[in-house]
Amino acid sequence: MTRETGTSRTPVRDALLRLEAEGFLQIVPKKGAFVPPITDGEVRAVMQARELVEDWCVRQVAPASEELTGELESVLAEQERVIGDPVTFIELDRVFHRMIVRRAGTPVLAGFYESLRDRQVRMGLYAVANEQDRSRAVLDEHAAIVAALRTGEAAAGVALTAHLSSTMATLHLPDVAGRGGTEHSVAGLP
């Protein structure tokens, strides 16, 4: 591959090692590299961390300004427009949640959140591509979060928790509050 692209082996090897360090790739000596399956435990861990960060953030920004709720509604309108395109839909899902986290104004949490969202992308794609009407449900849940952000922090926390719990159910795992877990891979999730 490096010959065809005119790239030296060093940057390719460095990129593969970085992907392995971040858990997105597994390198097997003398066999090659592959994308490992996501385990139930990893899904739970990511979702629990997301719930902690996002719940704190929605409570910090609620009641939200008209500027923020207007921006979030623009993202919802764009998600509605691309509802049949799972990749773009999930990219916009990331934008939606990122806006709330960044608006909370804590750069350390925003950086940590970005590392969680990278892992979440595969889970989100699986959910919207393999569950009929999941994209429509996500839009409804996001709209509920925006409405709750207008009213106050308790309502925003409730709407966010409902959204994340619905995502867990779509992935066929117990609610985020379920703290245990096995280490088998999520059915159908590479």
Describe the structure.
By secondary structure, the chain is mostly helical. It folds into two domains: about 35 residues, no CATH class; about 130 residues, Up-down Bundle (Four Helix Bundle (Hemerythrin (Met), subunit A)). Helix content is about 70%, strand content about 5%. It is built from eight helices and two strands. A two-stranded antiparallel sheet has the order 1-2. Strand 1 and strand 2 form a beta hairpin. The longest helix is centred in the middle third of the chain and has 24 residues. About 25% of the residues are buried. The C terminus is likely disordered.
Helix and strand element order: HHEEHHHHHH
CATH T-level fold name of the largest domain: Four Helix Bundle (Hemerythrin (Met), subunit A)
User: For this structure, what is the CATH homologous superfamily of the largest domain?
Assistant: GntR ligand-binding domain-like
CATH C-level of the largest domain? Mainly Alpha
CATH architecture call of the largest domain:
Up-down Bundle
Distance between the termini: 24 Å
In the predicted model, the low-confidence regions spanning at least 5 consecutive residues are 176-190
Largest sheet: 2 strands, antiparallel
**Estimated structural class:** mainly alpha
Strand percentage lies at under 5%
DSSP, total strands: 2
Shape: elongated
* Helical content band: over 70%
Figure out the total of helices: 8
Mean pLDDT: 83
In total, the number of domains comes to: 2
